[in-house]
């Protein structure tokens, strides 16, 4: 039985994916392999409309990749490029599946322990005790799971260089101040808040959520005209849908809308 990861589905269209290697919660080979399969399951399951990526305990979200497994992983993949390409593909699938994801950052969130959350839609951090960064410079190396690319897109070139070149770690409030995380919560409330946010997102019209995630993907590099064209595609994709009709009727009837009835929203 694979004990590297726990995958749970809950009422309301939410799933929770938990690294079970507490207290370090390393990104082991087994964890990455299992996470890849779980992400495929989430992408294909219409009953899951939002998900949380978290870890057991309250010590660390993840200290990063288990470096002792690196030679074994490269040998199994066939090359160093193939090894890291699989991890880039995993994060890209999280980023582009059309379903929102929420990551919880607490304790050490280092290396891959930050690079995985950078592929998520929302990042929530603990108010105290979080240490968030890409410390590869201290190992004479560089980020390898897309960290430099996504970090610079998220917080800008100068903040990214400051963190990477100095192997600098940030607290939750410091990360929030530069836009690296979206919300900061007391540690004992963090996981509950992540689930609440996922439930809120799951109640939104899934077709419209997917359309917006696709329309705004990689928006930093795209022209205004391209983004306007993507918005127009989103309009065509959602106009006349069951959820669009429900939204209009709810507005006219002065009541809260109930979306996603076709996928079993209570």
UniProtKB/TrEMBL annotation:
Alphabetical GO biological process terms: fatty acid beta-oxidation
InterPro entries (alphabetical): ClpP/crotonase-like_dom_sf (IPR029045), Enoyl-CoA_hydra/iso (IPR001753)
One matching Pfam family: ECH_1
Keywords: Lipid metabolism
Protein name as it appears in the record: Crotonase
Stored Gene3D superfamilies: 2-enoyl-CoA Hydratase, Chain A, domain 1
Source organism of this protein record: Mycobacterium decipiens
GO molecular function: catalytic activity
């Amino acid at each position: 039985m694979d004990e590297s990861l726990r995958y749970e589905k809950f009422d309301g269209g939410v799933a929770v994916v938990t690294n079970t290697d507490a207290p370090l919660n390393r990104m082991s080979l087994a964890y990455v392999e299992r996470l890849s399969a779980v992400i495929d399951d989430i992408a294909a399951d219409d009953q899951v409309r939002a998900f949380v990526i978290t870890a057991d305990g309250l010590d660390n979200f993840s200290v990063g990749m288990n470096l002792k497994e690196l030679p074994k992983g490269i040998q199994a993949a066939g090359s160093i490029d193939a090894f890291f390409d699989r991890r880039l593909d995993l994060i890209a699938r999280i980023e582009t599946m059309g379903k929102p994801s929420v990551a919880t950052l607490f304790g050490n969130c280092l290396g891959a322990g930050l690079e995985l959350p950078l592929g998520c839609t929302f990042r929530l951090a603990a108010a105290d005790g979080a240490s968030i960064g890409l410390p590869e410079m201290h190992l004479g190396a560089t980020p390898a799971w897309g960290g430099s690319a996504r970090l610079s897109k998220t917080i800008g070139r100068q903040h990214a260089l400051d963190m990477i070149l100095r192997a600098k770690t940030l607290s939750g409030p410091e990360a929030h101040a530069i836009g690296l995380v979206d919300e900061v919560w007391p540690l004992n409330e963090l996981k509950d808040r992540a689930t609440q946010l996922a439930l809120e997102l799951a109640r939104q019209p899934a077709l419209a959520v997917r359309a917006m995630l696709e329309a705004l993907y990689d928006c930093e590099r795209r022209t205004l005209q391209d983004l306007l064209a993507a918005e127009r595609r989103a309009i065509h994709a959602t106009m006349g849908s069951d959820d669009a009709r429900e939204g209009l009727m709810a507005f006219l009837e002065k009541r809260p809308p109930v979306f996603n009835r076709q996928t079993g929203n209570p």
